[in-house]
Design brief:
By secondary structure, the chain is α+β, with helices and mostly antiparallel strands. It folds into 2 domains: about 120 residues, hypothetical protein PF0899 fold, CATH 3.30.2320; about 130 residues, Tumour Suppressor Smad4. The protein has 6 helices and 19 strands. Strand 18 and strand 19 form a beta hairpin.
Length: about 270
Amino acid sequence: MPISDVFEKLGKAIFESPFSATRLTAEVPELAEIRLAALDAIKSKSHRVSGKLVFPFNQVTIYLSGVPEEQEPAFQSEFLSRYFNEELRAGLARSNYRFPDDLRVDIQTSSELPGPKQEWIRVETAARPKPVIEPDSESRLPGVLILVQGTANVAEMKLDKVRTNIGRTAEVFKSAGPSRRNDLAFAEDTEINRSVSREHAHIMFDKATGQYRLFNDRWYKTGPDAEANCALWIVRDGFGQPIHRNSRGVALMPGDEIHFGQAVMLFVRKV
């Protein structure tokens, strides 16, 4: 198929299916070729760290040659960039690559046809500097947990430590001796409190950003029942999201309901 016909087909599909990625991939196999070329370029610039595959760059630019000028808006659209962003993230995750959270994909086009030894797809990677975000006035206020459901050692706790531990008992002991001390403890023997683990979660405070991050400390089985077993949830704007064990945690926002099993605390910012 001539290169001009390839882009005519691609451009038509993008314009006609702006909200249907499934139809796009089914009807335009050339998209898969672009995705594979991008993944190959990413993997070629990755390296191993302590046995883990790492792609360190947060900017991927896909250059397409031979795109007619009248079709350039379709290829440089936000939809197509978002589509490839999601596809590349999914491909890297399936291959167990670690990559930056702010990975971004841009598409650049040229009407100039590729030469005899040139490819119509070219992929470049780069390290894009992260923007400096000044904290707003609300984020400068201390974080506070307010008891909503359950019985804790305090009804309201100001998060004025770098790390705040949450669990069922104030002190946690293991066979080797003391394990940790919980700042927020649901020690009274009630049905709600029994749903809280001894080492349930912790909250970390980042002084540089003023951000609080929530981490799951429970040991539980993953697999099909992971959603139910994690026992740590945030309800934000009416939608719940499970907080699973990982090294990054989840940033808290004012108004978040934090569910430690059946016990509930409200996260707010106030003096």
